[in-house]
Design goal:
The complex is a heterodimer of chains A (about 300) and B (about 280). By secondary structure, chain A is an alpha/beta fold. Chain A folds into two domains: about 10-170, Rossmann fold; about 185-310, Rossmann fold. Chain A has helices at about 10-25, 40-45, 60-70, 80-85, 90-100, 125-130, 145-155, 205-215, 235-245, 260-270, 290-300, 300-310, and strands spanning about 5-10, 30, 50-55, 75-80, 105-110, 140, 160-165, 170, 185-190, 195-200, 220-225, 230, 245-255, 275-280. In chain A, helix 8 packs across helix 12 (about 300-310), helix 9 crosses helix 10 and helix 11 runs parallel beside helix 12. Chain B has one domain (about 10-275): Thiamin diphosphate (ThDP)-binding fold, Pyr/PP domains (Rossmann fold, 3-Layer(aba) Sandwich). Chain B contains eight helices and five strands. Chain B has helices spanning about 10-30, 35-50, 75-85, 125-140, 155-170, 200-205, 215-225, 260-275, and strands at about 65-70, 145-150, 175-180, 210-215, 235-240. A five-stranded parallel sheet of chain B has the order 1-2-3-5-4, sandwiched between helices. In chain B, helix 7 links the parallel strand 4 (about 210-215) and strand 5. Chain B is globular. The relative contact order of chain B is 0.16. The chains are: A alpha/beta (about 300), B alpha/beta (about 280). At the A-B interface, helix 3 and helix 5 of A face helix 4 and helix 5 of B.
């Protein structure tokens, strides 16, 4: 990516949108596990100290108390590093939030390999696989700052249990400012007939650059932003599978159980086609997020190579 | 509560009837946690028929008291208390764990209005209760939160996370009742991971913590209604017997979830009838 493109930390859009919503709706509270800084909740705390509930380093109580706050009539946004929020509290997410249908918005901060250098204990490349079987849980992965704000506005106005997977890595803005988020809808960002590149979150901008490079080599790649992991946009998956006959999924997640797996489940039963999943095959080594994505074939060149191999 | 609170003598009669329903329900279903059901039923009876400000005809009224049975495996005791309180007909107890019944082996709030949160995995009720109590404080609501846990369940670390949070947040609208029957599934608690000194542990965590006889209705009413110590959550360590009221079940480890035979059901009902 060229250096003159402005990159956005989606956490800022998250925090500003949450504050705007909290200004208008006093039922909105935020809950965190000592993660005020990393969740960008400092301004929220300054404005409404009584509405920022910091339970300390106690993720089971973080999520359980979120369910109780919802039971009391409030709308809690429960924020924590995604690896701990989902991994440590998975049974609370299952029983207290989803099975109990509690109106809690789980906000997984610094998901994927945002904490690349800190190693696999802090990588959150399993969170989609852990949460995806929980039917009734909305799962969204916004692609940029615009979609982050749109997703947060959307989740605040419904009463569904929700997991929003937020990135920390800077991303370029890909969507227009008037974009409105629709659950269960993917967007075709670039048309193409030879292959479809499907990404979510931080990988979409790489897919866009890869499509540009593929075009220079005479390959027309379609690019799809796939923010809604649950509910799933089966229609777009089937359409792309049938029209381009090749699907390449790219995700900042394990290849076991994430976005690519969700798409493959549809493809295999409803529109079989050639398909490859890019992502992390196992615990990843230490390294920056950028380096890790590049290392595991999710650089622009890596995506181009996988696309060409799939087309052979 | 829409009815006049029951006093100790009336509670004794009511809980005796509920014990019979528990035994019949488990006998019919061939499933249930009879030991814990019989240890906790006097606590549940006292709550539903004397303490809780709830309306079974409007089970999710915003300003109701919140009651959470964290030891969800004792669902039969909860359902029995709710049925007698008027949440649903007592006859429906015969559907317990039948296909498509809303009376699951563990309580589900989405199926049965009046259940506050689905429980079953242990150590979940207190954190949820802490959240509800914080929510009441934020919204300046007067309603109270009550959580009942099993004593073995206290071995789950999530309780101690929540216990710290409750004290720090000064949740004097939260009451935890520990069904201290001293038995867990496989053994006596003292022979697994001892909980003692249980009352003192909660005190050291900043709670107003005291012991009460969990089968003494007058003592339970007094403890549950005693003036609050300002800014402190309250813990009642309710000393009970697993299987209370049936001589061949009471205080025996093997009756955690053993099901009585038809003859044993008859014997238990007769014993309760005679008031042994």
């Amino acid at each position: 990516m060229s250096n003159d493109i402005q990159l956005h930390d989606c956490r800022n859009a998250f925090a500003k949108t949450l504050e705007a919503l909290a200004e208008a709706d006093e039922r909105i509270v935020s809950v965190c596990n000592d993660s005020i800084g990393s969740s960008k909740l400092g301004d929220f705390r300054s404005k409404w100290p009584e509405r920022l509930i910091n339970v300390g380093i106690a993720e089971q109580t973080l999520v359980g108390a979120g369910a109780g706050l919802a039971n009391s009539g409030l709308v809690p946004f429960v924020c924590g590093a995604s690896c701990f929020l989902t991994g440590r509290s998975l049974e609370q997410i299952k029983a207290d939030i989803v099975y109990s249908n509690a109106n809690v918005k789980l906000c997984g901060i610094s998901s994927g390999v945002a904490y690349g250098e800190l190693g696999p204990t802090h990588h959150s490349i399993e969170d989609l696989a852990w949460t995806r079987p929980l039917a009734g849980l909305d799962i969204f992965v916004p692609v940029d700052d615009v979609e982050t704000a749109a997703v947060i506005r959307y989740v605040a106005q419904n009463d569904h249990p929700t997991f929003v997977r937020l990135s920390r890595m800077g991303v370029p803005r890909l969507l227009p400012e008037d974009y409105e988020f629709q659950p269960g809808k993917a967007q075709i960002l670039r048309e193409g007939k030879d292959i479809t590149l499907i990404g979510c979150g931080v990988t979409v901008c790489r897919a866009m650059d890869a499509a540009e490079q593929l075009a220079s080599e005479g390959i027309e790649a379609r690019v799809v932003n796939f923010p809604s992991i649950s509910p799933l946009d089966e229609e777009t998956i089937i359409q792309c599978a049938q029209e381009t006959k090749h699907l390449l999924t790219i995700e900042e997640h394990s290849v076991r159980g994430g976005m690519g797996s969700a798409i493959a489940e549809v493809v295999v039963s409803k529109a079989p086609c050639k398909m490859k999943l890019l992502g992390f095959p196992a615990f990843a080594p230490t390294g920056s997020a950028e380096w890790l994505l590049d290392h595991f074939g999710m650089s622009v060149g890596g995506i181009v190579d996988s696309a060409k191999a799939l087309l052979k | 509560m829409i009815r006049k609170p029951l006093g100790p003598d009336e509670l004794a009669e009511q809980c005796c009837q509920m014990r019979k329903t528990i035994i019949q329900t488990i006998g019919n279903a061939n499933m249930g946690h009879i030991g814990g059901d019989l240890s906790v039923i006097d606590i549940l009876g006292t709550l539903y028929f004397n303490v809780l400000q709830v309306n079974p005809e409007d089970p999710i009224a915003p300003d109701r008291d919140r009651f959470i049975l964290s030891k969800g495996h004792c669902a039969v005791a909860l359902y029995t208390a709710m049925a007698y309180a008027g949440y649903f007909p007592v006859e429906e107890m015969s559907t317990f764990v039948q296909p498509q019944s809303r009376l699951n082996g563990h309580p589900c709030n989405e199926k049965l209005p009046g259940v506050e949160t689905s429980t079953g995995p242990l150590g979940h009720g207190l954190p949820v209760g802490v959240g509800a109590a914080i929510g009441a404080k934020i919204q300046k609501k007067p309603w109270q939160v009550y959580v009942v846990v099993g004593d073995g369940e206290i071995q789950e670390g999530s309780n101690w996370e929540a216990a710290m949070t409750a004290a720090y947040k000064k949740l004097d609208n939260l009451t935890l009742i520990i069904d201290r029957n001293r038995l867990q599934q496989g053994d006596r608690t003292d022979d697994v991971t001892s909980l003692e000194p249980l009352t003192e542990r909660f005190k050291s965590f900043g709670w107003d913590s005291l012991e009460v006889d969990g089968h003494d209705y007058g003592a339970l009413i007094e403890a549950l209604k005693a003036p609050r110590v300002e800014s402190k959550p309250r813990c009642l360590v309710a000393n009970t017997f697993k299987g209370k009221g049936v001589s061949f079940i009471q205080d025996r480890v093997e009756w955690h979830h053993k099901v009585p035979s038809p003859e044993q059901v008859e014997e238990a009902l007769n014993e309760l009838e005679r008031g042994v």
